[in-house]
Amino acid sequence: MAGNKGRGRAAYTFNIEAVGFSRGEKLPDVVLKPPPLFPDTDYKPVPLKTGEGEDYVLALKQELRETMKRMPYFVETPEEKQDIERYSKRYMKVYKEEWIPDWRRLPRELMPRKKCKKAGPKSKKAKNTDKDTSLTNTADVLKKIEELEKRGDGEKSDEENEEKEGSKEKSKEGDDEDEDDAADQEEYDEEEQEEVETEAV
Amino acid sequence: MTQAEIKLCSLLLQEHFGEIVEKIGVHLIRTGSQPLRVIAHDTGTSLDQVKKALCVLIQHNLVIHRVHKRGVVEYEAQCSRVLRMLRYPRYIYTAKTLYSDTGELLVEELLLNGKMTMSAVVKKVADRLTETMEDGKNMDYAEVSNTFVRLADTHFVQRCPVVPATENSDPGPPPPAPTLVISEKDMYLVPKLSLIGKGKRRRSSDEDATGEPKAKRPKHTSDNKEPIPDDGIYWQANLDRFHQHFRDQAIVSAVANRMDQTSSEIVRTMLRMSEITTSSSAPFTQPLSSNEIFRSLPVGYNISKQVLDQYLTLLADDPAKTLLSDLDPRHEDLHKALGCLSTASLESVVQERFGSRCARIFRLVLQKKHLEQKQVEDFAMIPAKEAKDMLYKMLSENFISLQEIPKTPDHAPSRTFYLYTVNIPSAARMLLHRCYKSVANLIERRQFETKENKRLLEKSQRVEAIIASMQATGAEEAQLQEIEEMITAPERQQLETLKRNVNKLDACEIQVDETIFLLESYIESTLKRQ
Questions:
Q1: What is the pLDDT of residue B306?
Q2: Which among A66, A53, A70, A41 has a CA at the least distance from the CA of B507?
Q3: What is the Cα–Cα distance from A36 to B256, expressed in whole angstroms?
Q4: Burial class, A96, CB count within 10 angstroms (exposed 0-12 / middle 13-18 / buried 19+)
Q5: What are phi and psi of B66, to 5 degrees?
Q6: Which residue of B has its CA nearest to A11?
Q7: pLDDT of residue B206
Q8: Where is the signal peptide (chain A) (predicted)?
Q9: In terms of pTM, does the model score above 0.90?
Q10: What is the 3-state secondary structure (H, E, C) of A116-184?
Q11: pLDDT for residue B275
């Protein structure tokens, strides 16, 4: 067993000399708080590199930053509607080019499916998905949409109700009608596609 | 991903793409691979905005999509690629030094747009170059195409993976997302295009930035309706090749500093000869015989074969050991070269932060690998108290570490050797983490400075716009003077100070990025070695 069980003076279990200071020496104070946020440095930092190349890269960097803000990839946060529409806001809008990605390379779920007053979402789906599932509804929907247009805008709830009814009637359409409708559908959709995309950006 | 990296990615994304894209991007970096609906739910943004953000991120090669089982598409962000955005100006400048203005603009357009078809990028660059040329002159498409082909041949641009052509007999519904593939040999194949045309000058009426609203939005120009010959073949900048170039540059300048110009030219020749033959991650270059080196030396250097051999022997005997073998054929040890460069960075950081005596101790421990406390004091010839102090300071900052060597199996402290050592990969990682933190701090400070003086900046922009429009309509000197006095002298001073500070902070970011590149390359090569 160990000799003294801590009676008398405490003894270190290792050679204190090895650590570097002797017993009874004044040690620096214990640090009781986290280090300061902006600590003082003893030495001044090295000056930055200067030269033609460095100046050019600096100019490039600043230009790039500005250019990025004007590109269509910079997605602006939609501002909340202000109570009074300022006159100056109309004139300070920066015009941005549109950008339409190559949809063949992207997953289908990323295509925008905006609910537009002129067309229901189902007619857009017809272009993207295959012919099996939803084309059966579209002829129905088209007819109903034309009726609605004659009746006037703003009756969205009626439209939605009718579409829901249309979706229950899946088995009604035959294949011959599908192909004709598909041809019409394609043209109609292309126009819508352009309009919706100009609105979506 | 460490917190420092995530913070830096968030700042970079916000500066370049706005807040929505930043939110989605950071969420993906933090949580890994996720499907669309989960992202929308977790970040609380609307589905439309998430879709738009993902399109932008995928376009810029920052996020990839993958189809998992049960047809769920998951999106994964690539944090290291986001950090590359800091280096874009350097890539563009390199292209300028190698391929002059045309190359510079080509690379710039590719970096700004993520990926583009060859015809689109050639057209855009030709238009831009025409703007800068004198009136009446136009830039020919053929010239720009030639530069593009040269960029592709030297691997600075590469093709993006393509959608595989599906056969018509493919049954069943198309997959929810295309799986993009590319084969090695196709990556640098330039399609046979005959791009005939000249760059167009933009009409001045289109450039109304400050002025009246447009009567209608200009629709797509008629060019877009024509079928594009290389549709579907997209090109992107090959960042690995640029990194290889930077690494070669660093090695050559290090050799030039250590020895003389001629030896650096020899090293440059060796590296250039193995540029395309070695992949960017290989630890050694191809072995080259001294005859080959002799033949490939640039024309201006009339050194005889014996002198070349002497230089090669000198390089091989150098303690920095960038060349490995002593005999013909010789090759470069790139891993060691990167190690030397990183060690040099560490040494200089220690010197600048702690002083030259600390640096002396640090270099001593580096050289002797393992040293005891007493030995450090003796070899460095520094009094014991100060040596202790410095060692502990460096230890607390993790530049130096302790290695225990027990004499007895019970690891009793009184019977254990404690040796100081420098663990280079670990110290390099620690320094890299600090670099990321520094760049994040620099960007934050710059944004803070700009925000503080936002009112003043806007005022000065308005005044400049007014002066420009007045000059265009032909105003007198007196009126211009009056407008200029709208900005008072102290305000002018404030603007000057702001400009100087912002420039300094930007320059700092660029230089810290150079250190980041060095350390990242070294750490990557240590990982590949294992």
A1: 84
A2: A53
A3: 42
A4: middle
A5: -145, 140
A6: B414
A7: 38
A8: none
A9: no
A10: CCCCCHHHHHHHHCCCCCCHHHHHHHHHHHHHHHHHCCCCHHHHHHHHHHHHHCHHHCCHHHHHHHHHH
A11: 75
Question: What is the ipTM for the molecules in this complex?
Answer: 0.84
Spell out a b/e string for B497-506, using b for 16 or more CB atoms within 10 Å of the CB, else e.
ebeeebbebb
pLDDT at B132: 82
CB-based burial, B19-31: b 16+ in 10 Å, e otherwise: ebbbbbbbbbbee
> Cβ A105–B180 below 8 Å, yes or no?
yes
Contacts of A112 (CB under 8 A, 6+ apart): A196, A197, A200, B48, B51, B52
| C-alpha separations of B249 from A9, B273, B322 in Å | 64, 14, 14
Distance (Å, rounded) from C-alpha B24 to C-alpha B94? 32
Cβ pair B352:A45 closer than 8 A: yes
- Residue A157 CB partners (closer than 8 Å, separation 6+): none
Residue B89 is nearest to which of A15, A19, A60, comparing CB atoms?
A: A60
H/E element, B267: helix B261-273
DSSP symbol at B85 = G
Contacts of B412 in chain A (CB under 8 A): 13-14
Residue of A nearest to B59 (CA): A101
Whether the Cβ atoms of residue B364 and residue B383 lie closer than 8 Å to each other: no
Residues forming a β-bridge with A193 = none
CA–CA separation, B36 vs B359, rounded Å? 52
Q: Are the beta carbons of B17 and A114 separated by less than 8 Å?
A: no
- In whole angstroms, give the CA distance from residue A56 to residue A52: 6
Residues from chain A that touch B439, judged by Cβ atoms under 8 A, are: none
Whose tokens are 């070669």? That residue is B248
Q: Verify whether the Cβ–Cβ distance A101 to B59 is below 8 Å.
A: yes
Q: Which residues of chain A does B180 touch, with a Cβ-Cβ cutoff of 8 Å?
A: 105
For testing the chain B interface, which of A105, A116, A124, A127 should be mutated: the one with the most B CBs within 10 Å?
Answer: A105
What is the predicted pLDDT for the residue at A20?
Answer: 57
pLDDT of residue A12: 62
Cβ contacts of A93 on chain B, cutoff 8 Å: 213
Residues forming beta bridges with residue B77, ordered by sequence position: B63
How distant, in Å, are the alpha carbons of A28, A75, B22, B62, B242 from that of B56? 55, 9, 11, 9, 24
Nearest residue in chain B measured CA to CA from A93 = B213
B407 class by beta-carbon count within 10 Å (0-12 exposed, 13-18 middle, 19+ buried): exposed
In which residue ranges of chain A is pLDDT below 50? 117-135, 154-201
Give the pLDDT of residue A115.
59
Q: Please tell me the distance in Å from A87's CA to the nearest CA on chain B.
A: 12
Interface test with B, best of A22, A109, A191, A194 (most B CBs within 10 A): A109
Q: Buried b / exposed e across B357-375, counting CB within 10 Å, b at 16+?
A: ebbbbbbbbbeeeebebee
CA gap B272, A195 in Å, rounded:
53
Q: State residue B326's pLDDT score.
A: 58
Query: What residues in chain B have per-residue pLDDT under 50?
Result: 167-172, 204-225
Q: What's the rounded Cα separation, in Å, for the pair B7 and B19?
A: 14
Sequence-separated contacts (24+) of A178-184 with Cβ below 8 Å: A178/A131, A178/A135, A178/A136, A178/A139, A181/A135, A181/A138, A181/A139, A181/A142, A182/A126, A182/A131, A182/A135, A184/A142
Residue pairs spanning A and B at CB distance below 8 A: 146
- A56 neighbourhood in chain B, CB within 8 Å: 93, 96
**Cβ-based contacts of A58 with chain B (< 8 Å):** 89, 503, 506-507, 510
Do B373 and A20 make contact, defined as CB atoms within 8 angstroms?
yes
User: Beta-carbon neighbour count of residue B456 at 10 Å?
Assistant: 15
DSSP secondary-structure letter at B364? Answer: H
- Contact in structure between A139 and A177 (CB atoms under 8 Å): yes
The whole-angstrom separation of Cα A71 and Cα A69 is 6
B151, B122 Cβ separation under 8 angstroms = no
Sole residue written with tokens 């004044």:
A26
